[in-house]
Amino acid sequence: MEQSKKAHGHNHHHDEAPREKVDAIQAGDDDGEHAHDAPLSNKKYLAELKELHVELVRLQQWVLHAGLKVCILFEGRDGAGKGGTIKAITERVSPRVFRVVALAAPTERQKSQMYLQRYIPHLPAAGEVVIFDRSWYNRAGVERVMGFCTEKQLRGFLSATPLVEQAIIQSGVILLKYWLEVSPEEQSRRLEARIDDGRKVWKLSPMDVKSYTKWDDYSRARDEMFQATDLPSAPWFVVPSNDKRRARLNMIKHMLSQIPYEKVPSEKVKLPKRKVPGDYVGPKLPLKIVPQVY
């Protein structure tokens, strides 16, 4: 297991550097290999994203052709860009193949179930890619930090989850786990931008506001979650996301490299000749036309 952690760049020995330094490196805000001086231009971003969208369509065709089962988990800081990354992945593929799951708070009945039980029905069948926008790891993050679970429940989750994930993988599911990391300064900027933007205000929940003061608590929770659930067969991949555009491109590129797929052979589509109009006459009833305002 130690070998896997080194291979994927996870540093669980935080005594070697202050937590702020570790967070900055993971966010891509350090002078290391993941740091960039200038943001990626929109033109460059759109060009690269277009190429990746073509590959995602090829992946979709292969998933259907070969009956693959793919499950992708997105976790990370509030404001780290999970929603935007998921949108970038799914905007050019079929929602019948790429299915996004974002569960609401559990009902009273669900609270009495085995914790992972309500997630199991959403796992992919053959020919599906399921993307969890937040997942069962809520227990190791927000539930732990905000006091929604007991210490006993947390310990049970951290010990049981590797076994459950191993069973998921053994059933034929390709399981990928991504953590999006953002620096404290960039998180503050993004959360503040949501307050006065009518398009984004829905993203700022009361829970986000309460969580804002608990940066170190979330760092400790993340570290322990990685320590317990970073497995050789299901490692955590950290996506530095201070630059949203780079984060999306890097994440999609990496995801494609983790799923074996090929181009499905197909004939080039050619539109047939349209029939010459016959004696059809349009409807006589008055139609309600949308006003041409713009």
Task: Tell me what the structure shows.
The structure is a single chain. With 294 residues, the chain is an alpha/beta fold. Helix content is 43%, strand content 11%. A five-stranded parallel β-sheet has the order 2-3-1-4-5, with helices on both faces. Helix 5 links the parallel strand 2 (98-101) and strand 3 (128-133). The chain starts with a helix and ends in a 36-residue tail after the last helix. The model is unreliable at 1-18 and 31-35 (pLDDT under 50).
Write the layout of secondary structure elements.
Layout: H1 2-7, H2 19-27, H3 42-66, E1 69-76, H4 82-90, E2 98-101, H5 108-111, E3 128-133, H6 142-145, H7 151-170, E4 173-181, H8 184-195, H9 206-211, H10 215-229, E5 236-240, H11 244-258
Parallel strand pairs: 1-3, 1-4, 2-3, 4-5
Helix pairs in contact: 3-11, 4-11
Task: Give a short account of the largest sheet.
Answer: 5 strands, parallel
- What is the first-to-last residue Cα distance? 60 Å
Count every beta strand, where a strand is a DSSP E run of 2 or more residues. 5
Envelope shape: globular
Contiguous low-pLDDT stretches (5 residues minimum) are 1-18, 31-35
Oligomeric form: single chain
What's the arrangement of strands in the largest beta sheet?
Answer: 2-3-1-4-5
Mean pLDDT: 88
Tell me what portion of residues adopts beta-strand conformation.
Answer: 5-15%
Q: Output the number of helix runs.
A: 11
Q: Look at the helices and sheets and give the structural class.
A: alpha/beta
H and E string: HHHEHEHEHHEHHHEH
Considering DSSP H and I runs of 4 or more, what fraction of the residues is helical?
40-55%
Computed Rg: 22 Å
